[in-house]
Design a protein that fits this description.
about 400 residues, alpha+beta, Vanillyl-alcohol Oxidase, Chain A, domain 3, 8-stranded antiparallel β-sheet, two-stranded antiparallel ribbon, about 35% helix, GULO_Plant, D-arabinono-1,4-lactone oxidase activity, L-gulonolactone oxidase activity
Length: about 400
């Protein structure tokens, strides 16, 4: 048995025994000595983002980048290990992950719903700039002494600057304050599309997104209200479902309607980015932060995907750790794509006809702006729907 096979087999064996019986075992941990980190956020325009992203990650051990494509800005997190005796008692309490007054959270959601229903793209962009300016001005929640931010760099112990956000530790106050995503209040309701693009392809992917921004400059203001696109570095792994090579994780959060048949503003651009990543660049989807279509053919993207299924079958023959959903995602069973009226709006299917979008709300199935293989739900303004549909039909025939 190879090392890789042993690791996977051991995982399943531990899972089975831990869940089905009491199993005594001894584990030895190797602890790392306490160290500190020095963090600075540096904002630049995004013209060279694709060229710089690889070298930046190699220069800084804990680097990441937050991208605001509509504002054509990128915020580089310069984050390095420093000796434990370096002066500084910094703390990271990320602002969007703190509790907030429930009424304020509800007002934010109501504002976004009104912007969506009225196609208020300018309002979306204003909201986005207010959010990102506030975060930038307040160092995203970094403080030099646990209370105040006085300037970069912020130096603090690893355990105080690695974890972020105190929302789950907030007071029990009958929902006077709450996490923004708490379902007990009228708070945020969103989708997340998260995927890994091979480092060698990242520059081209970023350039494609920038092309979309040039065509529709306000289309991505909505994601900037949720602090843009977070890009993190992921290294290659020998695990069966690990990354075959170094990659960049793209984490995108965006508005979702409580009504699954209601499209979002600039639905087509968000869908095209999703399809560019998954199908043009072969991105690997995050297993817990994606819509159904992101998992189409996913196991074929892993060179050892079939080996994983063999080990899974060998160590879980009764499928105790499987479900209908996991089997669909892994391609073992059909049913991942759910074709019905409006299915493309929630990412349950790839649209092939207008009914999969929302034709009654002026959203029709059309080719992508720069990636024609992507069929996306595009809004056609009412006063020229017929003309635009005729033109699109001619283009499709050509």
């Amino acid at each position: 048995m190879t090392k890789k096979e042993f690791q996977t087999a051991f995982f399943f064996a531990v899972m089975k025994r831990c869940c089905l019986a009491v199993w005594r075992f001894k584990v030895t941990f190797k602890l790392e000595a306490l160290f500190k980190r020095s963090i600075s956020y540096v904002t630049k325009d995004d013209s060279n983002l694709g060229d710089e992203i690889g070298s930046f990650g190699r220069k800084h051990e804990f680097a990441d980048i937050t991208w605001y494509p509509a504002q054509q800005k990128a915020v580089y997190r310069v984050d390095d290990r420093v000796p434990s005796n370096t002066s500084g008692n910094g703390l990271y309490d990320f602002i969007p992950l703190r509790s907030a007054p429930s009424e304020v959270v509800a007002l934010g959601r109501l504002t976004e719903e009104n912007q969506e229903s009225s196609n208020d793209e300018d309002g979306k962009c204003i909201s986005a700039k207010l959010v990102t300016a506030f975060l930038t001005e307040n160092a995203y929640g970094l403080t030099n002494d646990g209370i105040l931010f006085t300037g970069y760099p912020v130096i603090g112990s690893q355990h105080k600057v690695q974890a972020s956000g105190t929302c789950l530790d907030s007071f029990e106050d009958a929902n006077m304050t709450a996490c923004a995503w708490d379902p007990n209040i009228k708070g945020e309701f969103f989708y997340q599309t998260t995927f890994s693009v091979a480092l060698s392809l990242v520059n081209s992917f970023i350039q494609d997104v920038q092309k979309l921004v040039k065509l529709k400059p306000k289309a991505l203001c909505g994601i900037e209200r949720y602090n843009g696109i977070l890009m993190r570095y992921v290294t290659a792994s020998t695990a069966y479902l690990g990354k075959d090579g170094d990659a960049i994780d793209f984490d995108i959060t965006y508005y979702r309607s409580k009504d699954p048949l209601v499209p979002r503003l600039y639905e087509d651009i968000l869908e095209e980015i999703e399809k560019l990543a998954m199908f043009k660049y072969g991105a690997l989807p995050h297993w817990g932060k994606n819509r159904n279509i992101a998992f189409e053919g996913v196991l074929n993207k892993y060179k050892n995907g079939q080996e994983f299924l063999k080990v899974k079958k060998a160590y879980d023959p009764l499928e105790l750790f499987s479900s209908e959903w996991s089997d669909q995602v892994l391609g073992i069973k059909d049913g991942l794509s759910i074709v019905k009226k409006g299915c493309a709006l929630e990412g349950l299917c790839r649209c092939t006809e207008d009914a999969h979008c929302a034709p009654g709300k002026d959203y029709f199935c059309r080719p992508g702006k720069i990636y024609s293989d992507a069929k996306v739900c595009t809004r056609l303004k009412s006063n020229n729907n017929l003309f635009e549909q005729i033109i699109d039909s001619v283009i499709n025939e050509v």
